[in-house]
Amino acid sequence: MNCAPRNDVLRRSGVLWAGQLVILFTLAGIAGLAQTSRTIQLACSGDGAADDSTCFQNAINNAHGATLRVPKPAVCYRLAHSISIKAPVHVLGSASRICMDIPLSGNSTAGRLFDISSSDVTLENLWIDGSGAATGIPSGDRYAFFAAGSAAQHIANVHVLNSRVTNLTESDGRRPATHTASFGAYFQWVDDSSLINNVIENVSADAIHFVSTQRITVQKNDIRSPGWGGVVAYGDDSGFDIGFNRVTGSVDSQRLTIAAVTNSSPCTLRFTSAHRLRSGDQIVIYGGRGAWQRIDYTPAHPNFTVNVVSPTEVTIPFDSSSLGPLGDQLNAIPAAATTRYWAGSYDAPSNEAVKRAPDVNGQIHDNYASGMHMYGAVYRLGSGRGLIISNNVAENIEAGSIPTSMLAISPRCAGMDCSDRGLSDIRILGNHFVASGRYLNCINIQNKVPDNSANLPAAYGISIENNQCVSPGPQSCFANGIMVNGQDGGIRNVTVRGNTVEGDDTKPWAVVRGVVTVIAGTSAAASSAIVSNNVSTCGGIPNPRSVGIQLGPHSRDIAVDSNAVAQHGTAIMVDPQSERPVVGRNNRFQNTQRAVTR
3-class DSSP state for residue 375? Predict the structure, then answer.
């Protein structure tokens, strides 16, 4: 087969940066710019059987500084080896399918399909598909698009546009990933770059992951059923813009409640309704209490293979003889559904696990999340400053066996020097979150760490305004709607304004009293305000034991005014250890038994 590239002349597409705005354009149509560009056309087999790696690499090498046009293949370009990009190039496909068939014997650079180490690289309109390739892969991480400079010298202007990544699972089919993982796109030490208008579906780890970047734009991506996070900013990132993305899954397509078990080996599960499973299908089990949490998700057994006994019963290969009665509701979902356990759909962790500098001056806005099974938070941020989280939506979210938040922010610096890990200048504006089950809280801001660190600075400049935390009814109900807790470092200058919050702090998964709560902890929550909020119960059902708004211990000079509180037993609760609370006369109470208690 002749793998030599052909020279054609085509109009070249590119990317022009104007601040944070990305403009796609055709060079030939812009006055003053080059009217033509050297173009190479790929001429590889594309039959899906031959290994096109050498041919593809040769074409990349010959297209340095030019455009490599990748025509649509007859089947796919099968690549069994990594493609290295070490110089500027524009790879332009036509929805061109590339079968990613990289065999790995461990964690190595060989797992990077496109391994980019150069600035000024654009990959556009490609389809990276791992279907059928995973069966021969023993282990190792894999990446469809991998771009990295170095800590000393970042690369820049790397763009992945209008492309598609599908079916990058592990060799044993596990989802989410355990010890090894597959990523759609992974950027490190890459600046002024973008991932725009891509579809990333069914990867075992993060769809888009970036770390130690400056001014990266992640917009208009359609992310479906990732095993871990949808978009993850893994610390030490500045000036990022994550907007207009969709992260969706199928967890709400079939939720299974386990009514009873037979304690034996194998263990028999009886569901409350028809399960629609087939023998050989895999399920993830979660929930329960006490000893039954042993079979909750762990890397050792992320899913169980079922043997169907009847339309409502299955057995799993697990010895449950010592676990006793269920004790609480146990649930299962098919492993083929979206499952996510420790990450967020949109995740900027920068915590003790990451141990990188806080994320700064970033935006997470106008994103959508639905159909997830979560153990953390849908939108999760670690240490950070200068962040705006606005106009995002989350609905149809299912929690695991621990409380899960729609939005959670916490420095989480246990075992580290926390002096530079505080929260500051964070604006949470106009988000819309809907409860759809148990173990859910809405907006959770925690300036605290597990070890009660003495050097954690006070959080300040936190604005939570015009958000909606919607609880349709008692079975789909937030416990805590808005919680600001400065237990360790303290809280200053917090504004909670104009929010609509529905919740019930008597639910067993409530973290604190109060549907809306500010707690200062060991330091004063000074100069803060809770004003003009609408606070009611789940589904508008009166609850004589619930608390609408709470001022927690050591809160000082907090103004509470012009709020409308309805259906709660206590409208406003003021902790005896609060200092100089200012409860105004413009608060309105409807169907509450106690207006203000101290």
Answer: coil
**pLDDT given at position 289:** 57
Is 270 within a domain? Answer: yes
- Which of 366, 414, 364, 405 has its CA nearest to residue 386? 364
Peptide bond into 71 cis (omega under 30): no
Give which of 60, 21, 13, 14 is closest to 40, Cα–Cα: 60
260 and 224 share a domain? no
Asked whether residue 241 is assigned to any structural domain, the reply reads no
Q: Are residues 223 and 268 in the same domain?
A: no
Q: Are 141 and 179 in contact (CB under 8 A)?
A: no
Would you say residue 261 lies in a domain?
yes
Query: Containing domain of residue 220, as a range?
Result: 6-228
491 and 555 co-located in one domain: yes
How many C-beta atoms surround the C-beta of residue 151 within 10 A? 9
* Greatest distance between any 2 Cα atoms in the chain: 84
Cα 327 to Cα 68, 290, 304, 314, 318: the distances in Å are 61, 7, 21, 20, 18
Give the closest residue to 295 by CA, choosing from 371, 401, 438, 372: 401
Closest CA to 570 of 535, 537, 554, 594: 594
Q: Please tell me whether residues 75 and 153 are part of one structural domain.
A: yes
pLDDT bucket at 538, cuts 50 / 70 / 90:
very high
Q: pLDDT tens digit string along 390-421?
A: 999 998 887 765 678 999 998 867 667 777 77
By mean pLDDT, which of 29-43, 59-73, 459-473, 528-542 is the weakest?
A: 29-43
Q: How far is Cα 550 from Cα 442, in angstroms, rounded to an integer?
A: 16
- Token pair of 153, please? 């010298």
- Count of the separate structural domains present in the chain: 3
pLDDT of 495 reads 94
The residue out of 334, 365, 396 marking a domain boundary is 334
Pairwise CA distance, residues 293 & 537, whole Å: 30
Residues 83 and 213 in one domain: yes
Sign of the alpha-carbon torsion through 325, 327, 329, 330: negative
Q: What percent of the chain has pLDDT over 70?
A: 78
In this prediction the pTM is 0.81
493, 570: one domain:
yes
Q: 465-478: buried (b, 16+ CB within 10 Å) or exposed (e) per residue?
A: bbbbbbbeeeebbb
Both 28 and 169 in a single domain? yes
> If residue 231 lies in a helix (H) or strand (E), which one and from where to where?
strand 231-233
| Local structure of 529: helix, strand or coil | strand
- Among 380, 408, 379, 383, residue whose Cα is nearest residue 392: 379
- Token digits of residue 52: 């096109």
Return d(Cα 157, Cα 456) in angstroms, integer.
36
Shared-domain flag, residues 150 and 15: yes
Cis status, amide bond into 176, omega within 30 of 0: yes
3-state secondary structure of 559: strand
CATH number at residue 180: 2.160.20.10
- Report the C-alpha gap between 195 and 293 in whole angstroms: 39
Is residue 459 assigned to a domain? yes
